[in-house]
Amino acid sequence: MIGGxxxxxxxxxxxxxGAKFRRSGWIAMLCALALLWPWGAVLAGADAAINRAIAAxxxxxxxxxxxxxxxxxxxxxxRRAATLDALVEAISRLAGDGLIPEHYRAAELAQRRRYxxxxxxxxxxxxAFDLRASRAWLTALRDxxxxxxxxxxxxxxxxxxxxxxxxxxxxxGHLAQTLARLRPSDAEYRALRAGLARYREYLHRGGWAPLAxxxxxRPGTVDPRVAQLRDRLAAEGIGAAPVAAPQYFxxxxxxxxxxxxxxxxxxxxxVVGVRTRTALNIPAAARVAQLRxxxxxxxxxxxxxxxxxxxxxxAGYALSLVRDGQILWRTRVVVGRPSRPTPILRSEIAHLTxxxxxxxxxxILARDLLPKVRRDPGYLAREGIEVLDPAGVALDPYxxxxxxxxxWRLRQRPGxxxxxxxxxxxxxxxxxxxxxxxxxxxxxxxxxxxISSGCVRVEHALELVRLLLDDQxxxxxxxxxxxxxxxxTRSVALTRSMPLLLWYRxxxxxxxxxxxxQPDIYGRDPEVLAALDRAPDW
Length: 538
What we know:
Blueprint lengths: L9 H4 L5 H18 L2 H19 L5 H9 L9 H12 L13 H11 L6 H24 L16 H9 L3 H8 L4 H18 L19 H12 L15 H13 L10 H7 L3 H19 L6 E5 L4 E6 L2 E11 L8 E10 L3 E2 L2 H14 L2 H5 L2 E4 L5 E2 L13 E4 L10 E4 L8 E2 L13 E3 L3 E3 L2 H8 L8 H9 L4 E14 L3 E3 L5 E3 L7 H9 L5
Parallel strand pairs: 1-13, 3-11, 10-12
Antiparallel strand pairs: 1-2, 2-3, 3-12, 4-9, 4-13, 5-8, 6-7, 6-8, 9-10, 14-15
Helix pairs in contact: 3-7, 4-8, 5-6, 6-7, 7-14, 10-14, 14-19
């Protein structure tokens, strides 16, 4: 012991010679003790508390969010500000897909992360923030992958994306890579994105002035509006060669007008009449909105469409047979009128019938045939239509009370007046619609062909038969014509059913990547645009 019994130990008092060195020794010893203290266990306990809070908070959330956190053992995903900065950058790229980046609040989340980093945060608050950020990210991915909202009348849902892969890419900071992987990769979607960028540039430059009303403009016309027409076409990238007299409608301008008309599903006659002028005067902002809607619909399509299929473009009045992702064949169609629209649906063509009888659908019976039969029951015999009871027994139409029809079926025999024509393609669907031939060949020459009762009339139906049966023996063009000429009703099953999509869109892509604008015959674009503009509820 140093000193007397009544004096404290100098090392404890910190006085006397060598006290500085003794204090240093104590500090070193305290540091060593600190290293032995279980700070790691404390930190691990804090992390475990956050994990538990996340596991509790994710209950009742979407399956995507639950799968995401289950894949990472309920570890938080957004502890680092750099990850939030990557989120801001990735989300900003969604503008190129027609989505609104501000809907996902990435910048707000990044700011909140920096605020939380200033002090201690309770596990529940950290978990709540993490869930909110993950909800925003997964919502953005789902919107990009399969659309903001499911299409009306849709019958199948898109496949969910892999939660484990999304989690791994996030931990690696590869958020932009996740977007690129989940973005539709087909050529049409890429062309639509390029089109959106191009039309936004047109809008940024001021768009285009409307073409003034007046008489139709045609080759040979001299009119001040011809110069306006040249400027209008050039503003959309459809330029005619410069001329000394811009007010003169020359052959080069006529070619440019026909190009514009083809891009807008108009008769390509080179004459600027009312319909062409109306299309010319649709502002650039409206075209940008139409492109955003087209991208949304393309996301619906990409999520469910196989590489080989038949696609009916309802508003484009066209049917395409696509094989291995490439359009193999295309033909014109007639589709449902606005009051009886052709439905959007996905199904499979399993069989076709040559020389089919036609059982009159209930809607057509009530709206179209009954008024005619009530006036003249002889109409049925002239059209080759028989009335059958539930057992299939033919009834005398003159002996029936047509003011109260019930339990009868009207069936038209095969023949020249049968609206199904020479062949019908059947597929399961709750709308009772099908693809078929038609004796009314003149309808395919119409510019607007939304005039049927909901079914799809195919211009070259027998060629579609050949293409669908090309993997089966004995179905050359000659055999097909012979089957039709026999007049006998005959059903043929496809060796492999063909996926079919009846699809509605108002914008397509040409072979050169040009935008092909189509009429919104059923008035559905505003609903889709409103859904895109509405912030998601998350």
